[in-house]
Design brief:
By secondary structure, this protein is an alpha/beta fold. It has a domain of 152 residues: 3-Layer(aba) Sandwich (Rossmann fold). It contains 10 helices and 8 strands. The strands form 3 sheets. Strands 2-1-3-4 form a 4-stranded parallel β-sheet, with helices on both faces. The chain has a two-stranded antiparallel ribbon with strand order 5-8. The longest helix is centred in the N-terminal third of the chain and has 12 residues.
């Protein structure tokens, strides 16, 4: 989906990849071959689904399992079972933010007790384009109608400067060159576990996590905007 999650997964696998660590992956498709890791391409047409691959993995006692995506209840159930029996499981889900992952698992049919016990960390991420440094110019804040959608307080706008790329040959007249990631990292603390068990809504979990120090996608994006690295359009597009 262009969020960079595959790159993040492979980075995690590379850091875990040691001679004495048995790592197995089920992917659709395998995008990068990593030496020392057992990678399987799932194939629905022959019955080799994510769930089927996971069941096969568990018979081989791996240390780490990576499932490209959790798409259905069967895959989710096996992934949770693997996590609860001593395996480190890495996977992805399509949600709007980190907290929504928890309710998504519940909606798929996973008992909140199992989710609270199995999940340890959630990373929600987006990629935003960076302003081209060679054609960067300031933007009049008062004339930009999109500022209202940031919902900033008056004092937060003090000293706020924005920029854009007007377009040049180096960026193919797009005004952008390069990208960077936004990472919302939600650790599952004992407090968050209790909220999962009580079926708290995502916004409440996110609020608690933010109070505990988590930076939301919007907060991180605003930091990039304040630093003059990206545009208001990119911030709104990635975090609305």
């Amino acid at each position: 989906t262009g969020s960079g999650k595959t790159t993040t997964l492979y980075s995690a696998l590379s850091s875990l990849n040691q001679p004495d660590v048995n790592i197995m992956t089920a992917e659709d498709p395998v995008e990068y071959n990593i030496e020392g890791i057992n990678q399987i391409n799932v194939n629905q047409s022959i019955g080799l689904t994510f769930a089927a691959a996971l069941r096969s993995f568990l018979r081989q006692d791996p240390d780490v399992i990576m499932v490209g995506e959790i798409r259905d209840l069967e895959t989710a159930e096996i992934a949770v079972k693997a996590a609860l029996t001593g395996h480190l499981v890495l996977s992805t889900l399509h949600t709007n933010d980190s907290a929504s992952t928890l309710t998504r698992l519940t909606d798929m049919g996973i008992d909140p007790f199992l989710t609270a016990s199995a999940v340890r960390l959630i990373v929600a991420q987006r990629l935003i384009r960076l302003i081209c440094k060679d054609c960067k110019e300031p933007v009049d804040l008062e004339k930009n109608e999109l500022v209202q959608f940031l919902k900033l307080k008056p004092n937060e706008l003090e000293g706020f400067k924005m920029f854009r790329g007007k377009g040049c040959p180096l960026c193919n007249n797009s005004g952008y060159r390069g990208r960077c990631g936004l990472y919302e990292v939600l650790p599952i603390t004992p407090v968050i576990q209790e909220m999962i068990l009580s079926k708290a809504p995502p916004f409440a979990i996110q609020k608690q996590a933010a109070a505990d120090g988590m930076q939301t996608l919007r907060a991180i994006a605003l930091e990039k905007l304040r630093a003059g690295l990206t545009t208001i359009e990119e911030v709104l597009g990635a975090t609305s």
